[in-house]
From TrEMBL:
It comes from Polystyrenella longa. This is Prenyltransferase and squalene oxidase repeat protein. Residues 417-443 are annotated as: Disordered. InterPro entries: ARM-like, ARM-type_fold, Terpenoid_cyclase/PrenylTrfase. It comes from the Bacteria.
Length: 610
């Protein structure tokens, strides 16, 4: 029996951009914001960046929060801080904060504007030194606009019960202020928490303006969950914070069923009753610094709202989102705003799936489908193209994950997951086509099975060119063709040629067959670092663990002192192999398919070496 991943995850594994070998099989420039994203997503990112930059140069973006959010999105997509759209946005913010008080350019939406202004300045100045004066004024303005009940709203009376959306951007701004070291009273978080608890719907969701009878919506429920997650990390900085969903489905013997990496997600229609707090994974360095600042800010303050009440609110909102999970339809007038809020919620809560769905793959696929093919923008309601494109861009680049130091890259130095072929800068001069490039182009016309057969030929002299053609075919044209080639790939994994073995480790990681995981684990013991790294990358890929099982799941070249050479280095590399092998073998024994769990003692022995 073949155990397979859900369809959405299979597609994700097959779509991932994997275009250069660490052993110099391919040479290309890494793309920093996520070499593991599908190539369609990377292309969409480049189009969106080009649109926002062009729109700024043509003065097509209003000089309000839309200019700021566009600049923030570009910054998160690795556009240099000194670029015109970003420096231009900073200039506008500086003008708005040059007087005695903050003056928004769109007065009715001043809270939105102040929030994103703070977000951009902090993203450019984490320590709060270069833009301290501006950030202090913005913080004072946002705190001063908080209502007595703890919410924020427009400057008019349309939101007299508070406004979940305005509150979201006020809290995002204050989160940025906190990270930059701008002081304000923790009571702001307490008051905001109380308002959310008081207006949250009986169904767990949130509405835009919480008048009696207003229904919960997708975008506001995600916003409410985000708000409470932000509040939680400030009022209770030392509390556990990884959020999961608890399925009520049960196995045949009546015991609760564990849905792990190697088991199918709940069948469609299975109720997901609650969200639960799980043990937080290792914090990033950014999060450690942020947490320490929050601990310091709270040392003389006792929260009025309990952690249990906050967790109940978050759990209710996430449960509503799981019950009503949607990407394409029924999410309201602002789907791009919704998707960016979803990315933020999932980054803050360490949520990998919603209702058994790969929210990032499905949301990104929908963005690719909806992106204007000619201009590269998205469009929604009153926000028009600029803001919608900024929201879509920040979803695709996982902007909040980057803010938290949870970079969406694999943490491995090398492997076939580091390229950006197909995304060449059109302004760069054309290079003369090499003989190898010509051969790759020719080989790309051949089917996957023919390429694999060529690689199996021990006399084949063009392994590098065939490998490049194979990778491009699998990623861009014949993504499903690799699945039927398992037997050949298994044979390639046993090939004595290390470059062929390395290709096999990459290819096995892109099949939908979880039975190959033991082969990948065995690949960790092969006496070739490139093969080891590729096997490790594929394990991370297939198990939805981009950072592996520990901080040691990186290339040994990143761990071992470069001054250690000769026999000592060989010993250090071998020690890394054995420890990495044991770690992944232990993990596999806890989650392997039931048909492999025969409880034979020998099965549980973990080899130290081959």
């Amino acid at each position: 029996m073949i155990t397979t991943l859900p369809t959405s995850f299979r597609s994700f594994g097959l779509w991932c951009l994997t275009l250069s070998l660490s052993a110099n099989i391919f040479l290309s420039t890494p793309i920093a914001y996520g070499a593991n994203e599908p190539p369609e997503f990377l292309a969409a990112i480049e189009k969106a960046k080009a649109f926002l930059q062009k729109s700024y140069s043509e003065k097509a973006i209003p000089s309000d929060g839309r200019t700021t959010i566009s600049a923030l999105a570009l910054l998160k997509a690795n556009v240099p801080p000194e670029s015109a759209p970003i420096t231009g946005a900073v200039g506008i913010i500086t003008a708005k904060t040059s007087g005695e008080e903050y003056l928004a350019n769109e007065r009715s939406k001043a809270v939105y504007e102040a929030g994103v202004d703070l977000m951009l300045l902090e993203a450019l100045d984490h320590e709060g030194t270069q833009y301290q004066k501006q950030m202090e004024m913005l913080t004072k303005y946002i705190v001063g606009r908080q209502r007595g009940d703890g919410a924020w709203d427009y400057t008019n009376k349309d939101a007299r019960n508070g406004d979940t959306s305005q509150t979201q951007y006020a809290l995002l701004g204050l989160w940025s202020a906190h990270k930059a070291g701008i002081p304000f009273s923790p009571s702001v978080w307490d008051k905001a928490a109380l308002w959310h608890i008081q207006v949250q719907g009986a169904d767990g969701g949130f509405s835009y303006h919480p008048f009696p009878g207003n229904r919960s919506t997708h975008s506001m429920s995600v916003a409410g969950a985000c708000n409470m997650l932000i509040i939680r990390r400030h009022l209770y900085p030392e509390a556990k914070g990884k959020w999961g969903t608890k399925p009520v489905d049960k196995s045949q013997d009546g015991t609760p069923k564990k849905f792990g990496v190697l088991e199918e997600a709940p069948a469609e229609g299975s109720a997901i009753e609650e969200a639960i707090v799980e043990e937080a994974e290792a914090l990033s360095e950014v999060e450690k610094t942020e947490r320490q600042k929050a601990i310091e800010a709270m040392k003389d303050y006792q929260p009025r709202i309990s952690l249990a009440a906050i967790d109940k609110s978050i759990g209710g909102a996430i449960a509503w989102i799981n019950r009503n999970y949607a990407i394409k339809k029924g999410v309201g007038q602002y789907p791009y705003y919704y998707l960016y809020s979803m990315e933020r919620m999932c980054a803050l809560g360490d949520i990998n799936q919603l209702a058994g769905h790969d929210w990032y793959l499905e949301g990104g696929s929908w963005l690719v489908e909806k992106q204007n093919a000619d201009k590269g923008h998205w469009y929604e309601g009153h926000s028009l193209e600029a803001a919608a494109t900024a929201f879509g861009l920040m979803f695709l680049t996982k902007a909040t994950a980057r803010t938290l130091g949870k970079a969406p890259n694999f943490g491995l130095g090398g492997g076939m997951l580091t390229g950006n072929r197909g995304l060449k800068d059109p302004n760069e001069p054309e290079e003369e086509e090499s003989e190898k490039d010509k051969l790759v182009k020719k080989k790309k016309e051949e089917p996957v099975e023919k390429l694999l057969a060529d690689l199996m030929n021990p006399k084949e002299a063009n392994v590098a060119a065939i490998a490049e053609a194979l990778v491009e075919n699998v990623n861009f044209e014949e993504r499903e063709a690799l699945i039927s080639q398992k037997e050949i790939l298994v044979k390639m994994a046993a090939d004595p040629r290390m470059n062929v073995k390395q290709i096999a480790m990459w290819a096995l990681g892109r099949t939908e067959d979880l039975e190959v995981i033991p082969i990948l684990i065995d690949g960790l013991l092969v006496e070739n670092v490139d093969v080891n790294v590729e096997a490790l990358l594929s394990l991370c890929f297939m198990t939805r663990r981009p950072n592996g099982l520990s901080d040691q799941d990186v290339s040994p070249d990143q761990l071992i002192d470069p001054t250690v050479q000769g026999e000592d280095r060989l010993k250090a590399v071998q020690k890394w192999r054995e420890e990495t092998y044991r770690r992944w073998k232990r993990w596999y024994f806890t989650v392997r398919p039931y048909n492999e769990r025969d409880d034979v003692e020998e099965t549980f022995k973990i080899r130290a070496a081959r």
